[in-house]
């Protein structure tokens, strides 16, 4: 039986409320988190035990920026090592999770905002595999990626995410992967290995983001540039912030919000992550 067929069988036996999957935004930070046994990777592994086992995972990563929107459509996506200057052990990692071409086509078909291309050239970049390999180390759950159209504003991505809501009813775990506060130009290298240190502006903005997320103030989060100087420091470019728009766009009226890995790193990044779950 295909994965997509199993989705249909699965949802036929459960009510919508029982089968509604959580949604995550995960601060992925350094690629080294993919091989380190640290507070962040341990929490990712624990999260997998706290939520229902998904039928598939769809990741929207800060590291797949395209013109137009694309989804991985191959049977076996490659493990992409899209970084440099790290130990060989990181480049040696392979995460051989299968893809799901049928689910890719199904997902493309429910998006009406734009035409979605099926990609056979991408795979799983470090915004995806560094997290998912800790959550599902057996690599036995299909993993797909949806690209971010870098030519579009935050509102576009938030609205597009709403079209993916049906995936939550089909046992698909949707994960936005980026960082709320992500300014590599202002990183404090002397604190790079000492999680917990954050510049005042980074901590203030992180608190603001959490407050707005908790209050459901999505309009203000979409229009982040109006949140002041700290917001522009936290988001010098939108790539790591836009995955949050997908997570928030999938929030339903009865969902509850919780935060995890709420830690600053190297002064100018935060690992703060969000779980949206049905009550």
From TrEMBL:
Any one GO MF term held by the record is:
zinc ion binding
List the protein's name: 4,5-DOPA dioxygenase extradiol
Known EC number(s)? 1.13.11.29
Claim: Oxidoreductase is one of the keywords in the record: yes
Taxonomic superkingdom: Bacteria
Q: Which cofactor does it need?
A: Zn(2+)
Residue span, Extradiol ring-cleavage dioxygenase class III enzyme subunit B domain: 37-254
- Cite the entry's keywords alphabetically: Dioxygenase, Metal-binding, Oxidoreductase, Zinc
Family the UniProt entry places it in: Belongs to the DODA-type extradiol aromatic ring-opening dioxygenase family.
Recorded hits in SUPFAM superfamilies, A to Z, give: LigB-like
- A Pfam match is LigB
Does the keyword Metal-binding belong to this entry? yes
């Amino acid at each position: 039986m295909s994965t997509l067929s199993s989705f249909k069988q699965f949802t036929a036996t459960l009510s919508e409320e029982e089968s509604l999957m959580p949604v995550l935004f995960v601060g992925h930070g350094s690629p080294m988190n993919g091989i380190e046994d640290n507070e962040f990777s341990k929490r990712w592994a624990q999260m997998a035990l706290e939520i229902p086992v998904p039928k598939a995972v769809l990741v929207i990563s800060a590291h797949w920026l395209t013109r137009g929107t694309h989804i991985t459509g191959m049977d076996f996506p490659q493990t992409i090592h899209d970084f440099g200057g790290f130990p060989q052990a990181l480049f040696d990692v392979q995460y051989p999770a299968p893809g799901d071409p049928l689910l890719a086509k199904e997902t493309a078909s429910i998006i009406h905002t734009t035409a979605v291309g099926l990609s056979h050239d991408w795979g799983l970049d470090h915004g995806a595999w560094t997290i998912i390999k800790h959550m599902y180390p057996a690599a036995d759950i299909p993993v797909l990626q949806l690209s971010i159209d870098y030519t579009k504003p935050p509102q576009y991505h938030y609205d597009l995410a709403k079209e993916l809501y049906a995936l939550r009813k089909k046992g698909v775990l949707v994960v936005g992967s980026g960082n709320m506060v992500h300014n590599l130009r202002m990183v404090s290298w002397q604190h790079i290995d000492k999680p917990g240190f954050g510049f005042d502006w980074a901590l203030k903005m992180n608190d603001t983001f959490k407050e707005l997320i908790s209050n459901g103030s999505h309009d203000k989060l979409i229009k982040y540039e109006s949140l002041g100087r700290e917001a522009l420091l936290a988001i010098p470019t939108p790539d790591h912030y836009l995955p949050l728009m997908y997570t928030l766009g999938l929030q339903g009226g009865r969902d509850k919000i919780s935060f995890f890995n709420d830690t600053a790193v190297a002064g100018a990044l935060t690992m703060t992550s969000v779980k949206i779950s049905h009550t």
